[in-house]
Design a protein that fits this description.
Layout lengths: L8 E11 L2 E13 L2 H16 L8 E2 L2 E4 L1
Antiparallel strand pairs: 1-2, 1-3, 1-4
Length: about 70
């Protein structure tokens, strides 16, 4: 069989979450698997939206650091 290697890495985010220029979480922590840092940040913002029950059209900014672990 053809095996496809999983190219995703585990990323961890720690920092503030900003909505409409207001800090709504000052020490949010999350992890995700993604193929790039940009995709990881997008996944983490999505996770935050789901946890906090925030609509998809509202912009969520991540002000902290995202590192591959």
């Amino acid at each position: 069989m053809n095996q496809v290697k999983d190219e995703r890495r585990l990323y961890q985010y720690e920092g503030a979450v900003i909505i409409f220029d207001r800090i709504v979480a000052d020490n949010y922590k999350a992890q995700t698997r993604a193929s790039s840092t940009a995709k990881a940040r997008s996944n983490i913002a999505y996770q935050f939206r789901r946890k906090a029950n925030i609509a998809d059209h509202i912009p969520v900014k991540l002000a902290g650091t995202t590192v591959a672990i």
